[in-house]
Design a protein that fits this description.
About 40% of the residues lie in helices and about 15% in strands.
Length: about 475
Amino acid sequence: MRKKLTLFKAAAALVMAMLLAVTLLGCRPYDPAEGILDEGYEPDPSGKVKLNYYIAANDALKKAINDYVSAFNQKYSNVKVQTSLSSRTKEQIAAEVAAKTVGDVLFLYESDVYNYAVTQKALMQLDYFVEAYGIDLANIFTAMVDMGTVNGRLYMATCNYNHIIYYYNKDLIKAANLTDPVELQNNGTWTWDTFKEYCRALTFTDEAQGTNYVGAALRLGYSAEYIPFLEGFGGKWYDTAEKRVSFFSDERVLQGVKEMCDFVRSNTCKYYAVDVTGQGYKTVKNTPSQMNFQSYNDKTQVAFRAGEHDNMITIGRDYESSGIDWDVVAVPALPTHRVGTGCSGFAVFNGTRNPDAAAALALTILTEEGQTAYHGQEGGAVPNIKSLAYNNGYWRVPFEDRRDDPVNGKNYDAFISFPEADTYAFVECVIPPEVADVVKKYMQNVVPEDVNGERSLENTLALLEAEANQKWDSIFKG
């Protein structure tokens, strides 16, 4: 009898344990397989979370993250945040993700999101916490939401707004009696065709001083600068539904690449060679009919050069130390206006044991208090929140703002101009990393190969398309 009673108790305990497990699973706030919150679930941010911030290479960056955590804790006082501040490579972070030792919240770049969200399935979807935590996505620049979104789901809360602009030597513009480009930007006539006219006028030799000048210096093997050309004539170079890239078969994409080659061939542009694949790069040869301008000084002999906000202080002070007047202007508009745009952000590891607190910590960067804390130091990045970008001046230092000094001030509005034209800065943002590697391998050298007569751009793009689509097929079928 006693044995039967013991067995009965054991069985009852087992049933209770199973019911408890089912109950817990049923109430689990986040299901990695389904990616949904239970209906009516109200998150409760509390407990402990770890933030892995792997670019803390200096005191300013460490202060940024510590200030951010402090601002977060003012609202979520029941969460204790452990910060891991270090300077580690992407490869080291990838190893930690694979080993599931990365922590709850991790810092990523836009180029990481597709890989970790889709290929590695290592990121938690954040959509279901956005409304719960009162995040106003309508106040975020659209591109900054898109950069963290894959297949319609939000995986990364972006930290900053960073799109390509052009630095330019105002002294050269004035000497050529050309209208200031900022004036053209403001009245909507700063187009690619106008820019080419400026480059022709600004490529010359000053016989009296014996100095040569060139209109522009562009990194046309760098995706942030060539993607706008792929889309600038209405082309669609990738299709995630069909799992295809179209570089040769889409005539509009082909036209964009041809425009880059023709611009370099016009002898008004210094082609900046970049090695984005680690497999070596080519440059434009110096021939009797073609200049490569490699010896030209970007500061004193180049009129326009591409850059971003995060190198403004360095470039600006370099100009000023040489007594050169300078400014920044928006990227000139192609027929379909596109501007290469990037960012960094916070994502939540899919293996977190505290999704409520982790999501709250990541999404706080999409609030004014989170942005102000993270970027509050001098020279902080351009905020991703419209209300701060347009109305707050903390990111517009250390040079005078044109709004305050329209004659001598700098055109900070270039960094937030034409947000409707923003497009992805990196090919790996929207296609599998293995396919992106193929695209980068060919696009890195397509311009110099065509200009040098080594291989036509048509041949290069046909090879690119065939190899990339074969790779995508193998991933999909595999």
